[in-house]
Amino acid sequence: MLNTLGMELDKIARVSLVGAGPGAKDLITIRGFRVLQEADIILYDALVSEELLSELRIDIPKIYIGKRCGLHSHTQDEINKLLVKYAFEYGHVARLKGGDPFVFGRGNEEIDYVEGFGIPVSIVPGISSAIAVPSSQGIPMTKRGVSSSFWVMTATKRDGSFSRDLVHAAKSSTTMVLLMGIRKLIQIADEVINYRDGITPMAVIQNGTSANERCVIATLGTIKNHIEQVDIEMPGIIVIGDVVADHPSFFEEEVQRVLHSGI
Question: Which among 78, 104, 127 is the end of a domain?
Answer without folding.
Answer: 127
